[in-house]
Amino acid sequence: MAAKPVVHEAINYLRNTQQRNGFFNAFVRVSPEREVTSQAMAASQRRETGKSLSPLDGTIFAIKDNICTKDMVTSCSSLMLVDFVPDYDATVVAKLKDAGAIIIGKTNMDEFGMGSHSTTGIHGPVKNPNSSKLSVYSAGGSSGGSAAAVAGNLCSGALGSDTGGSVRLPASYCGVVGFKPSYGLLSRRGLVAYANSLDTIGIFTRDVRYAQLIFDCLNEHDPTDPSSLDGRSRRKIKDHVSNQSRRWNIGVPVDYNVTEISPPLKKAWISTLAILRDLGHNVKPVNIPSTRHAVSSYYIIALAEASSNLAKYDGVQFGSHTAAISRPVSGISPSLQLVVAARERGFGKEVRRRILLGNYSLTSEAMENYFVDAQRSRRLIKEDFDGIFSSPNPLGSRQGPSLGTEAGVDFLISPVSISSAPNLEEVARMGVTGVDNYINDVFTVPASMAGLPAISVPVHGDKDLPIGVQVTAQYGDEKKLFEAATLIE
Ligand code: GLN
């Protein structure tokens, strides 16, 4: 007798994982086959008896390795957390499980989410499923494992985290949909913090509608996450949900037209706009001048927050004990020596670099010039965005005539990255961790700094490699965002 569809699908994903993960290196841990198939059988039975828990019942999910999973190592691709086994599920994981989803494994990433190519972690680089025999391409980062798992058909959907682009960039490189919600909508409880004022849980799928379905399942206030948007504010968003059935005003951010964009990407950007114009929508240029400072201010704020978040890993109370003293450090007490050794061994080069930069920007001599200035620029970025959208920011405190005007735009269309996926040799040549790599985030960090929802939708790129076009909308305007994204997929 043929296997039931749910079970059949689960078995297919398991087989694909067994056959392909050796090359992709997308998963760092795979759930036992027995567990996955027995959960699939239970879901199949529920479906047959009309008792499915949700549309996600029996679907196969991958979870980035910085999102806590009960009784399953959550390493953040760091030696520091190599033996960390959480005793609880992150809220988003618990919600997926409640909906009947099956967790097939944990995915590879840049250490603590710091990077753009999934090359800075302890598990080795993720390889883009679009690689050929001649070229092995970057899967993007930091959620490269989740993107590759979806692109390589190892699961139906995956969770990642997006602090400054870590869902959208790998989605763009791998050719899948990558969605980052408005800050505060999806619970961060159980997401190991990189930069908490920017961190969001993100979603990878092969089509936009499925991303929306998953988002709807996870989008709920979580009283255990202090940054989760409360019910009152959520109602304000509902009140602002705009009319879906009219001609859109589509903004093209002229400040994003930087010289670094590769010609094929520019071409893809222009043809997406042409498609939308042909569908009868208005396309118009908009200025968001402050976004020119977005990358530099992002790297000050994110690193300052990271240095504080990672301060707790001392190898004693938090972090692995395996990082034993490698060489004695003179002039400090033996107990401090232990901490120094644990941090020196437990963190990789890029993480240590960022902790140092972050700590420096918070010192009294640098604070005013760096951290405070970056916060000012973040406020300007938010104000610039608020000034161009047709709908007002439902949480915005600034009210003015420029907010929510008819002349404003419904959403923005831009590239996600400056080029399609570079090959991994090129990445290594650029210096895996060099600050030059930070340019990759030029189109993704502005939405992160303003807390706005954004989605990467795959379009045809160069060299047969996919590339992503990004749609960005006003805070809380997810509905419109998904609507727009379906038009270009
Ligand atoms: N590449 C960016 C960084 O390294 C974004 C990372 C992320 O979103 N986690 O900070």
Automatic annotation (TrEMBL):
SUPFAM superfamilies found in the cross-reference section: Amidase signature (AS) enzymes (SSF75304)
Active site: 64, 142, 166
Enzyme Commission numbers on file: 6.3.5.7
Gene Ontology biological process terms, A to Z: glutaminyl-tRNAGln biosynthesis via transamidation; mitochondrial translation
Pfam families: Amidase (PF01425)
Main location: mitochondrion
Source domain of life: Eukaryota
Reaction equations catalysed: L-glutamyl-tRNA(Gln) + L-glutamine + ATP + H2O = L-glutaminyl-tRNA(Gln) + L-glutamate + ADP + phosphate + H(+)
Annotated Amidase domain residues: 13-481
Transmembrane segments: none
Gene3D superfamilies given in the database record: Amidase signature (AS) domain (3.90.1300.10)
Name of the top EC class for this enzyme: ligase
Alphabetic keyword roster: ATP-binding, Ligase, Mitochondrion, Nucleotide-binding, Protein biosynthesis
GO cellular component: glutamyl-tRNA(Gln) amidotransferase complex; mitochondrion
Location of the protein in the cell: Mitochondrion
GO molecular function: ATP binding; glutaminyl-tRNA synthase (glutamine-hydrolyzing) activity
Keyword Nucleus in record: no
UniProt entry tagged with the keyword Signal: no
Family: Belongs to the amidase family. GatA subfamily.
PANTHER family, sorted: GLUTAMYL-TRNA(GLN) AMIDOTRANSFERASE SUBUNIT A, MITOCHONDRIAL, TRANSAMIDASE
HAMAP family membership: GatA (MF_00120)
Function recorded in the entry: Allows the formation of correctly charged Gln-tRNA(Gln) through the transamidation of misacylated Glu-tRNA(Gln) in the mitochondria. The reaction takes place in the presence of glutamine and ATP through an activated gamma-phospho-Glu-tRNA(Gln).
Assembly mode: Subunit of the heterotrimeric GatCAB amidotransferase (AdT) complex, composed of A, B and C subunits.
UniProt name for this protein: Glutamyl-tRNA(Gln) amidotransferase subunit A, mitochondrial
Source organism per UniProt: Arthrobotrys conoides
